[in-house]
Write a structure and sequence with these properties.
This protein has 613 residues and is an alpha+beta fold. Helix 4 runs parallel beside helix 5. Strands 18, 19, 20, 21, 22, 28, 30, 32, 33, 34 and 35 form an 11-stranded mixed beta sheet that branches. 23% of the residues lie in helices and 31% in strands. The N terminus is likely disordered.
Length: 613
Amino acid sequence: MQPEVLTHTTDHSEALEHNQTIRNIAIIAHVDHGKTTLVDAMLTQSGLFRANEHTVERMMDSNELERERGITILAKTTGVHYHGVKINIVDTPGHSDFGGEVERALMIVDGVMLLVDASEGPLPQTRYVLMKALEAKLPPIVVINKIDRPDARIQEVLNEVYDLFIDLDATEDQLDFPVIYTNAKAGIAKLTPEAESSDLRPLFDAILKNIPAPKGDPNAVLQLLVANLDYSEYLGRLAIGRVFAGVLKYGDEVSIAKLDGSYHNTRITKLYSFEGLKRVDETIGQPGDILAIAGVEGITIGETITSVENPKPLPHIQIDEPTISMVFTINTSPFSGREGHYVTSRNLRDRLDKELLTNVSIRVEEAGGPDAYKVMGRGELQLAILIEMMRREGFELMVGKPEILTKTIKGKMHEPVELLVIDCPETFVGVVIEKLGSRKGKMAKMVNHGSGRVRLEFHIPSRGLIGLRSEMLTDTKGTAIMNSLFHGYIEWQGEIATRPTGSLVSDRPGKTTGYAIWNLQERGEIFVTPGTEVYEGMIVGENSRDADLNVNIVKEKKLTNMRASTADEAIRLVPPRLLNLEQAIEFIRDDEFVEVTPQSIRLRKKILKANQR
């Protein structure tokens, strides 16, 4: 027995020293305030890449959609070394639709870096992520980024950040935060806006000084909380989590404490830690380490990996409720199966089940009939990204109009309400207020910064936001910036007017012709180009009146051998409005579907035959 006790004590002292050599931090901010760019600069300056190694911009945004849209969708972990300390950095998304990712990231870190744009100041998502961080009692470092912007208002933004902290009931300790001024693109950090600096050293020093080292007893029972999942072709499912207590070794027998209270024993087949963009093999995990583990089939987020003999699960992660739902169903149009590989309801079900494994803020239920599923999420963007990913993988499906999820409180129906912040030029304030008034929005605040732009805050039912973005951009000539955030529940607000126009619906199959489109242009806006294949019941345009109109868009010009005076008139077509996925989802009404295939996005009526509608 004696030697075993000795090894434990040596292990313990090692682990305590080890704790001082690690810091876990999450970067939180509103969308586009420069989180991922700052991580780039931190990775580059920590000497992880060779001088001649080619790196891309925003290296952490690894999947195709993230790179295309320039947004972060999934929270990701990386690690850098500075003065012998390993700093684990979790890069989180900025959109409230992906709030579930942020909540989980905050579970495994000991402090946060709150990034604020030096010109835009704190926006709704800044408020949301900061609220979550303060609730979790995490010490913040405030980073004011983009100080090189010509319209930067550094001091005002700092005052707004203080106001936000006070507004969110921050404690005295939390209000005593350090402030760093950065230009992430150039990789510069300073302690005062005037100071000279050529690198991010002040930021790294602030992290070491202000973020506490992780606590945890290496002799206690093993507890590792799973906060994220990944998938590897070779190793199967990987669980990413943080060791809170005990020590995890490669090859250990461990027990997975399931969400339903049962236990499942398994063996750890691989341990990784994160370094730059690579996963590095490890043999042992100490308290405070953020690790990826293989050999854990069937594990889900929020479960605990603990010891077999004496299991002690940690409390589960609570995730906010979904607020919006859409019906996903198989493609039943005449063109189904032409472009996609996966077209059956079984394929659809399997893909949604796979999504549920890694995406905790989505729920799926059967929706009347074996072929339709009701998918619930945090917002339109989140569901649109899921559809876009499925489409790229070769799926064909149809989706219905987004609907909000209501709640019954004290016998009355309540609906979700959102805080909407709109930033627009002074000239468009009237248009914006009028537009939101018709959608049951109530104005809460209006601030004019004196820069020619005005910031308006509204409380508006989530229903009122469906289809709002495209109308708002049209009305403000593309100058409005909209951001929304879930704010709670409110009594049902009554009917909200939807789009005021009807659809132009093709009444027969065939290929569209320039001649037919030319004749229909006066009826409204066309969505298809000449030569597009259409079918009966497919929506080919927007009618300028409120009723639907069945049109013949495949009509050809009759040729005769008589010479007519109009024969040589040139056909001039107005360019069609080609809808992308989000615009299509916003456009449709209750009796319409969006048909999504790998190569096309079509709109159609639920009932194709004109005489049955």
